[in-house]
Amino acid sequence: MQTSYELRTYSNYIGGKWVDTKGGTIEGKNPATGELVTKSAKSTPEDVAFAIDEARKAFDSGTWSSKRPSDRARILREISELIRRDIDNLTVLLTLENGKPLADAKGELLNAANVLEYYSSAARHIVGKVPRYSGTDISLVVHEPVGVCGLIVPWNSPISLLSWKLGPALAAGCTVVIKPSSHTSGITMELMKLVSTVQGIPPGVVNAVTGPGESVGMELVRSLKVDKVSFTGSTETGRKIMEQASVNLKKINLECGGKSANVVFDDANMEAALRGSVWSIFRSAGQSCNAGSRLLVQETVYGPFMRSFLQAAAAIKVGNGMDPATEMGPIISEGQMKRVLGYVQSGADEGAHLSLGGRRLVDGDYGKGFFVQPTVFEEVERGMKIFKEEIFGPVLSVLPFRDEDDAIAIANDTSFGLAGDIWSKSLTRIMKVAQGTRTGTVWVNRHLNPGPEVPFGGYKQSGLGRETGMEGLMEFLQTKHISLQLSESADRVRR
Ligand code: NAD
Known about the structure:
Elements: E1 8-9, E2 12-14, E3 17-19, E4 25-29, E5 36-41, H1 45-61, H2 69-85, H3 87-98, H4 102-122, E6 129-134, E7 137-145, E8 148-152, H5 158-172, E9 175-179, H6 185-196, E10 206-208, H7 213-222, E11 228-232, H8 235-244, E12 251-255, E13 261-264, H9 270-282, E14 294-298, H10 302-314, H11 334-349, E15 353-356, E16 360-361, E17 371-372, E18 375-378, H12 385-388, E19 395-401, H13 404-412, E20 420-423, H14 427-436, E21 443-444, E22 463-464, H15 469-474, E23 477-485
Helix pairs in contact: 1-7, 2-4, 3-4, 3-6, 4-5, 9-10, 13-14
Bound molecules: nicotinamide-adenine-dinucleotide.
């Protein structure tokens, strides 16, 4: 296993150039070892203003929005191909900064390449309509790019979640200023290096500035020159963004937190349900917005299912993501680890039964990083914090349910509404629960979307708007109606 790495340092990418900041640096550290991996710019308000101005100039000049769709498509395809070409280098850096296992990091990068490729095709399918065509009276409905967009991205899947925004923004003809999480700024700027080599992107179309969310991110949200902010992150930050974006009634997209229910019926293929349920919560150490963090098991199979589940969860290999045998990596930071362990404590204090895990791993090399055991609570009550709040760690709450109505009631008893899983062979049961749960996505006998063609987003406090699919592209487009009166008769004009 590779153990030492050269520290990489990044500037901001603004107006097609690498621009140093006077604001100092932020550090990207390997959460498995505490080692310093990257240094990026701690941007000042002036840096952000400069990036916004460059994006504004590029948009207002029309050099990007008036390009032929086929040119925008080629550029998106090239970025996607460059990710595939450099996949090994990118995979290592993503694992080092984020901690996820190499196989998951590679999967994420391939997903991003696939998303950009999808939006490369979509760029050529932006179509309007003609809802009135009556003699000389013709109405055209056309779509135009929203304008300058701030793209604010979290650390948990930094490149695939960026591709969900960058792909449709560029396909639509928008210009962008990207603001990654401080934990994963290096991998984002590494992607910018690839973008900077693509021929035909006018300067200022893609800009990226790094630094803290409260300053750098908020500058983007408050700027009168930014037309839209597309944000992925916590519901708490999403709420602040919604308030501050009102300054110029910016368009906003919010992809926020979740507390998804994973519903296992007694007629399910038990092996598939078991694998899917374990993966759904412990993939990325539970640091996924769509983690199935509430497992609902039908009472008729509760005992045997949970015995197998606990065995499978206990066998997960937790370790450094750079070790190919690792199945679950560390928590992103010490602060987040303490938060997760605080939830474990609250579950115990409120009377839930700790059936597995619950502790930080500290022996040997574990002690250098932020590792938490796969953790399972049973006998969870619906009023408990571990049932209600997003933990964003490897902590599962399990509850039995009687029937479809009971499952729907428990699943809906949350302020979130991002996604959910159903495991059953009965179409009647599946449709009843799928229609009854208030979430943006329902996965049946699978976990995660099959590809970028379908939309993703939240009901309730999980967000606003949709990403991926053509719905995700429409979020970066405005709709304009052009009403034509071709008759030369003055009688046609209303007085
Ligand atoms: P976060 O809200 O702390 O930060 C997300 C991004 O917003 C970061 O780039 C951060 O620097 C920036 N930011 C923070 N405060 C800001 C402010 N006041 N103004 C502007 N920008 C600000 O979230 P996180 O800890 O990075 O990510 C975890 C959260 O993301 C979880 O709640 C998870 O559910 C959510 N998430 C949602 C989805 C989805 O698609 N719905 C996907 C992945 C993650």
